[in-house]
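Side project, low priority. Logging it here so it doesn't get lost.
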Amino acid sequence: MIPTINGLYLRDGAHDAKKAHDDLFANCEMVIATTTETHADAMKMASEITIITGAHACLTDVYEADGLFARIDMMPKLASAAVLLATLDQPGWSDARKLASKAFAQTTDTIQLFNELVNPSAELVNNRENVIRALDGLTSALATLREQVAADDSKRLDAILLDLKEGQAEWSDLRATGNWEKSDRDELEKPVGMLKRMFGDPSKLQKK
């Protein structure tokens, strides 16, 4: 079982035991990852626990769950690590550290979400293939941004960044409310976004 926390507490350190909430898992997704060998009684118990917490059961297999969390959990932490690798103790750091911005602080704080104190790489190497795919996706995204900056293509950069800002804000609101069904209905009537117009709809790509 892999719980997700109430979106209202996503940014307030609610995972800290000192900040307990009785609705911490309310209206959230509880990932129940199974294999062909998972016993029916275990699934029943997991479903009952999910109901007690007020969450929604999200049944999936372990391989799909590993791929999902490589993108939404491990990739942000690795992005934080990359920013620190590119700045910490690098030339100019002695001055830069005194001027580092809110963006730097918020981005690099994510490195602390590697919970294992002795061997933080364990979650990466134990899910190596999916983590590599996630890193490839991140590298590709950075390459796209670099290409547009190098080309001095401010029009396209603006389109990308504004579309991403809009998408992030929409996700943030939906994550806080948990009203995903309304989002699915609205999506049917939503105009095609700038990124889809430029790069195509990834949902329509043929799987190899």
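Brief comment: The chain has a mean pLDDT of 84.
Revisit when time allows.
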